[in-house]
């Protein structure tokens, strides 16, 4: 049978566009269906790229405030929030344009509209009143995720003007990151509910602007599933920078220019209500897979209890020639995991034999004035997973001159173990908090992913003086031969 396309992808985010780029490179006729005007999905338009544009501005402000320490007479005379937003939009537009051109150069058709899997090999695309059908040998589901609402609260629905109006009227709207990225005014007081990357990145951005930021946490620290040395280093640093954390807390009301929350005292079990001023609430408690559309059920796509599409190691769903990648599948909701999945799915379709994605070694990263990175097992997870003789080496970054010059601090944790009594000790976890730690994540990941023995990993050479030397020093210490650290 002849189809319109070899591969038809629903969704143009990192999962979808990366699949299309690779399948077209492999010689397959490919199209991508996208319901928004621009390609790139959450990551390019409302996620990774705009948040990092704002954090770039935050870093500049942060450096300007520290300029006096170097004898530099620099002052910040104001922040033009609408110009800052325009600069962020320009960064996004540049990246989106680059992707569009790249897709065009690879002869990928972009079909605008809402796609749905009709039946085997047939996808409908609805754009306004117009519905068309396309056929394809393979269909890739890459519809992404959406921000989970705060239990008991609804997201404010309305455009930027309506949000500004609600803030002026002290309604304290509940916003997701989508709306928060488009605000044109600098908030005075913000309450953020959440303890993950999105919560901490926005907290650092607004804090750098001079906004009073309060983060409400359910547990006693952010990043509660991470290595505790890392989460406590992040919390200590952010507190020092002026961000306020309310631990063991849950929001109970928002309105009249304030947020009320209940805090539990874990020592005696007592609860206390507190009310603080707030312009709005950023709800950043996580994302849910975008699989509620009716066609997922009618087409018979198998989902797990959390709504993720169930796939095998190649990304195959339960339906023949239907595949899934990105946030709709189980795993970390991260663009680089979606890229990795996209390569695997594409190469499986082309009959190659790619290495399956190892979700455990995908770097989890929080960006900010210090970055936080978690790759592989924490010591606790390693013991639970049955590794033998698990060792955790915790190394403060105090002796790294570049970290000191930045007036910053950091911690590196190396987790090593043996998988059976006859095997060599390998590095199974690297966890880092420190300036620019995200730039070292790739090197750390390769060590874990390739199961490099610790004594070989510790021979890795990093140029001097660099921040990345902290990783080298920590590996040497884990191997029992510390050089510049005690
Ligand atoms: P998406 O990027 O969500 O793309 C899905 C696409 O499908 C969308 O364009 C959507 O419009 C389209 N779509 C959905 N349904 C249909 C349909 N029926 N028909 C047609 N089109 C449809 N990850 C990182 O790795 N690093 C970061 O720094 C980072 N920062 C983030 C910051 C924020 C504020 C947010 C919200 C997320 C961030 N992420 C980050 C996560 C990252 O954005 C996602 O993991 C990634 O975008 C997932 O890619 P995806 O292709 O699965 O889905």
Distance between the termini: 69 Å
Count of DSSP H/I helices: 15
The description of the largest β-sheet is:
7 strands, mixed
Helix content: 25-40%
Question: Would you give an account of this structure?
Answer:
This protein is of the alpha/beta class and about 475 residues long. It contains 15 helices and 22 strands. The chain has helices at about 15-25, 40-45, 50-65, 80-105, 160-170, 175-180, 195-210, 230-240, 295-300, 335-350, 380-385, 400-405, 440-450, 455, 470-480; strands spanning about 5-10, 30-35, 110, 115-120, 120-125, 130-140, 145, 175, 190-195, 210-215, 245, 250-255, 260-265, 270-275, 280-285, 285-290, 320-325, 365, 370-375, 390-395, 410-420, 425-435. Helix 3 crosses helix 7. The model has no long low-confidence stretch (mean pLDDT about 95). Flavin-adenine dinucleotide binds next to helix 1, strand 2, helix 2, helix 3 and strand 4. Flavin-adenine dinucleotide binds near residues 33, 198 and 327.
């Amino acid at each position: 049978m002849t189809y319109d396309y070899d591969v038809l992808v629903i969704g143009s985010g990192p999962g979808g566009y990366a699949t299309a780029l690779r399948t077209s490179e492999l010689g397959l006729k490919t199209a991508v269906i996208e319901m928004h005007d621009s390609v790139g999905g959450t990551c390019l338009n409302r996620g990774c790229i705009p948040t990092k544009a704002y954090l770039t501005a935050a870093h500049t402000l942060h450096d300007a405030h520290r300029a006096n320490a170097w004898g530099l007479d620099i002052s910040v005379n104001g922040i033009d929030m609408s110009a800052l937003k325009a600069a962020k939009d320009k960064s996004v537009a540049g990246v989106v344009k680059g992707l569009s051109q790249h897709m065009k150069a690879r002869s990928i058709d972009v079909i605008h509209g809402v796609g749905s899997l009709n039946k085997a090999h047939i996808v409908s695309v609805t754009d306004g009143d117009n519905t068309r059908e396309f056929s394809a040998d393979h269909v890739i589901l890459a519809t992404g995720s959406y921000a989970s609402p705060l239990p008991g609260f609804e997201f404010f629905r309305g455009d930027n003007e309506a949000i500004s109006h609600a803030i002026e009227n002290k309604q304290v709207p509940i916003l997701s990151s989508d709306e928060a990225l488009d605000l044109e005014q600098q908030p005075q007081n913000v309450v953020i509910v959440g303890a993950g990357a999105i919560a901490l990145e926005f907290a650092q951005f607004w804090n750098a602007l001079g906004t009073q930021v309060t983060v409400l946490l359910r547990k006693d620290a952010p990043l509660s599933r991470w290595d505790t040395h890392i989460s406590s280093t992040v919390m200590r640093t952010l507190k020092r920078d002026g961000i306020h954390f309310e631990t063991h807390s849950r929001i109970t009301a928002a309105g009249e220019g304030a947020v009320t929350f209940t805090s539990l005292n874990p020592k005696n079990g007592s609860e206390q209500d507190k009310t603080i001023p707030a312009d709005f609430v950023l709800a950043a408690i996580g994302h849910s897979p975008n699989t509620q559309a009716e066609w997922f059920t009618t087409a018979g796509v198998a989902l797990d209890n959390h709504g993720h599409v169930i796939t095998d190691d190649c990304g195959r769903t339960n339906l023949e020639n239907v595949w899934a990648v990105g946030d709709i599948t189980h795993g970390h909701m991260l663009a680089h995991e979606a890229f990795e999945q996209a390569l695997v799915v594409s190469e499986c379709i082309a009959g190659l034999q790619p290495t399956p994605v190892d979700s455990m070694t995908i770097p989890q990263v929080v960006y900010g004035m210090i970055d936080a990175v978690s790759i592989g097992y924490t010591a606790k997870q390693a013991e639970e997973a049955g590794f033998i003789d698990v060792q955790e080496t915790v190394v403060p970054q105090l002796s790294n001159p570049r970290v000191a010059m930045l007036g910053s601090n950091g911690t590196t944790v190396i987790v090593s173990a043996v998988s059976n009594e006859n095997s060599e000790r390998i590095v199974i976890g690297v966890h880092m908090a420190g300036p620019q730690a995200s730039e070292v994540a790739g090197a750390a990941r390769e060590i874990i992913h390739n199961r490099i023995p610790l004594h070989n990993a510790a021979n890795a050479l990093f140029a001097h003086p660099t921040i990345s030397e902290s990783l080298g020093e920590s590996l040497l210490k884990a191997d029992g031969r510390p050089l510049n650290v005690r």
